[in-house]
């Protein structure tokens, strides 16, 4: 899918390069949007299927790190090259991806789903390198057992809702996709140069401020890669979501004082940009990379295709909605309403992570499915377990 659909970003940049009207640019943006939805949905699933549990979190976060690095690259060179030069340079990246990724094998899970165990074994051997043959055979046999169990149902859309594990995974994946978008990061970056106070830049221009934000994302996404398989997903997600909420609450409060009261906030014009930077730090530690990568760990084999398609639609609609209402809300209600809305979403994400999201650190994909399928013990069961533990101690 990734190789075949790489025609989307290539076509997008060709349209940008040859554009003769706004319609061409709209079409290019549409194609790019489809590709972003696909790459942020399919890549985590592919990585989840090929990675060992001990490094799966770091590799999953690598997708976001590369996305942020690409954004930063454009922020840095964009102001200093011509329109057509930028289109050519950026268009070379998906061409390079097509030429190199074409040689990557399908995941072992994909081959097992299509009953091609020999190819699955070769694929796993390629990804594991010089791993012992007995360990390799044991791993492929366990993968086959897990795939057969998960593929008992054929993968209809209804199968998403027929088991507890599938339902819970679906809810977690969709809600995290919404929370990532409604953290405000996308529109905050897109409209930063018009949102921030004009005299807040002082020695820095709008382009330099956006570059600083982009550098923040890249640096702390790398930090997240180092922490995610040590601290776990839930801790980083909870901390990140809460931190993003604080940043957006602070920014919203400043915009409220500036526009809806007579308080003179001119001397504190640095607060919005500082809030944006802090938001970038905590967002890149958890909510951004883990919120997008978690789908690669949660979904059973028989529902991955359908849920991936739904997630891409949810991401696209969320982006479209936020891009549409951001300036409308700012003009009609006040800019602060946007940021208080983002803050509310981030705080809700904190609660959702703490109460619903399951920890996946160090677990195989089947162990995650077992965890999703497991119902919380009732209060009576917990009391019985506690009593049994006490009696065993005595």
From TrEMBL:
Gene3D superfamilies: MFS general substrate transporter like domains (1.20.1250.20). It comes from the Eukaryota. The keyword Zinc does not apply. Pfam families: Sugar_tr (PF00083). Keywords: Cell membrane, Membrane, Sugar transport, Transmembrane, Transmembrane helix, Transport. Residues 373-394 are annotated as: Disordered. One of its GO terms (cellular component) is plasma membrane. The chain crosses the membrane at residues 31-47, 59-77, 83-104, 169-190, 210-228, 235-256, 276-294, 306-327, 339-358. InterPro entries: MFS_dom, MFS_sugar_transport-like, MFS_trans_sf, MFS_Trehalose_Transporter, Sugar_transporter_CS. GO terms for molecular function: transmembrane transporter activity. The keyword Transport applies. Its main location: membrane. Residues 1-361 form the Major facilitator superfamily (MFS) profile domain. It is a multi-pass membrane protein. Residues 373-382 have a biased composition (Basic and acidic residues). It is found in: Cell membrane. PANTHER family: MAJOR FACILITATOR SUPERFAMILY (MFS) PROFILE DOMAIN-CONTAINING PROTEIN, PTHR48021. This is Major facilitator superfamily (MFS) profile domain-containing protein.
């Amino acid at each position: 899918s990734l190789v075949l659909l790489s025609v989307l970003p290539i076509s997008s940049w060709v349209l940008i390069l040859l554009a003769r009207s706004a319609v061409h640019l709209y079409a290019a943006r549409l194609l790019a949007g489809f590709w972003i939805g696909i790459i942020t949905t399919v890549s985590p699933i592919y990585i989840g299927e090929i990675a060992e549990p001990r490094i799966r979190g770091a590799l999953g976060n690598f997708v976001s790190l590369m996305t942020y690095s690409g954004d930063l690259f454009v922020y840095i060179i964009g102001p200093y090259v011509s329109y057509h030069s930028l289109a050519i340079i950026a268009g070379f990246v998906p061409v390079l991806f097509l030429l190199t990724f074409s040689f990557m094998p399908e995941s072992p899970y994909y081959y097992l789903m299509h009953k091609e165990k020999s190819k699955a074994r070769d694929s796993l051997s390629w990804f594991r390198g010089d791993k012992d043959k007995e360990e390799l055979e044991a791993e492929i046999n366990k993968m086959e057992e897990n795939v057969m169990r998960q593929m008992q149902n054929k993968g209809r859309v209804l199968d998403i809702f027929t088991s507890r594990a599938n339902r819970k995974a679906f809810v977690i994946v969709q809600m995290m996709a919404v929370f990532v978008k409604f953290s405000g990061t996308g529109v905050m970056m897109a409209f930063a140069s018009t949102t921030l106070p004009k005299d807040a830049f002082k020695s820095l221009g709008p382009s330099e401020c956006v570059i600083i934000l982009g550098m923040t994302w890249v640096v702390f996404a790398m930090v997240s890669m180092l922490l995610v398989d040590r601290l776990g997903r839930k801790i980083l997600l909870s901390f990140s979501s809460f931190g993003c909420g604080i940043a957006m609450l602070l920014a919203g409060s400043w915009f409220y004082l500036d526009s809806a009261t007579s308080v003179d906030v001119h001397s504190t014009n640095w607060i919005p940009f500082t809030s944006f930077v802090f938001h970038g730090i905590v967002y890149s530690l958890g909510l951004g990379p883990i919120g997008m990568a978690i789908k690669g760990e949660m979904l059973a084999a028989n529902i991955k295709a359908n849920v991936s398609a739904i997630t891409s639609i949810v991401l696209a609609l969320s982006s479209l909605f936020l891009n549409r209402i951001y300036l409308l809300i700012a003009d009609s209600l006040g800019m602060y309403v946007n940021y208080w809305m983002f803050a509310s979403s981030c705080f809700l994400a904190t609660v959702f992570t703490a109460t619903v999201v399951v920890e996946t650190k160090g677990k195989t994909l089947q162990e995650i499915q077992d965890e999703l399928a497991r119902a919380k013990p009732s209060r009576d069961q917990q009391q019985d377990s506690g009593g049994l533990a006490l009696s065993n101690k005595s």
